[in-house]
Amino acid sequence: MPRNSKCRRVCAEPVHHIFVPERSSGQVTLTVEELEAMRLCDLEGLDQDEAAKRMDVSRGTLQRILYSARKCTVQALVEGKEIIISGGNYRVAGEPCQCRKNCNHCRFHLNKIKELESDE
C-alpha cells in the first residue's frame, strides 16, 4: 500500500499557466511542484540537496520530480506540444525559506526589492 504523498513547498503559484508553440501538436501537463523543482535547480542553480530542503522533501523525491519535469518539458519542445502548468500536491509558502541566500526569482525576494525601490 503506497504512503500518503507529502505536500511540496513552492514559493508561489506560477503567473503563466500555458505555453503554446506556433503550431501545436498536442499538450503535456507540468505540475506546479515540477516547475518549482526546475526553477530552484536549473534557474537558481541550487544543488538538489538545497532545493529539496526548500521544498520540504527528500533529495530522492526532488530528483524524481525533477526528472519528470525535464522529460515533460523536453517532450513539449521536441514534439511541438503545449505546456499546461496545472495541479500537483503542493502548498504555497507563507514565509520565505530560511536560507543563506535569497532566490533571485522568489516572490519574497522580489517583494523586498520593490519595497526598497519604493522607499527611495
In brief:
This protein has helices spanning 32-43, 48-55, 59-79, 107-119; strands at residues 8-10, 18-19, 27-30, 82-85, 90-92. With 120 residues, it is α/β, with parallel strands linked by helices. Strands 2-4-3 form a three-stranded mixed sheet. Strands 1-5 form a two-stranded parallel sheet.
Can you walk through the features of this model?
This protein is α/β, with parallel strands linked by helices and 120 residues long. It has helices at residues 32-43, 48-55, 59-79, 107-119; strands at 8-10, 18-19, 27-30, 82-85, 90-92. The protein has a three-stranded mixed β-sheet with strand order 2-4-3. A two-stranded parallel sheet has the order 1-5. The longest helix has 21 residues, at 59-79. The termini are far apart. The model has no long low-confidence stretch (mean pLDDT 83).
